[in-house]
Amino acid sequence: MLLNLQTFVLLGALPLVMFVALGFTGGLELTATGPPHWDAVIPFSAGIIVAIFIISPAVVLVQLKSVRRQQIGFREAFDQGLHYFWRMLGLALLLAVIFVVSLILFVVPFFFMLRRYLLSPYYLVDRDLGIREAMRQSAAASKHHSGAVWGVIGVQTLLSIFNFVPILGQVVAVVCNAAYWCAPAARYNQMCKADKAAA
Question: Which residue segment(s) compose the domain that 178 sits in?
Answer without folding.
Answer: 107-199
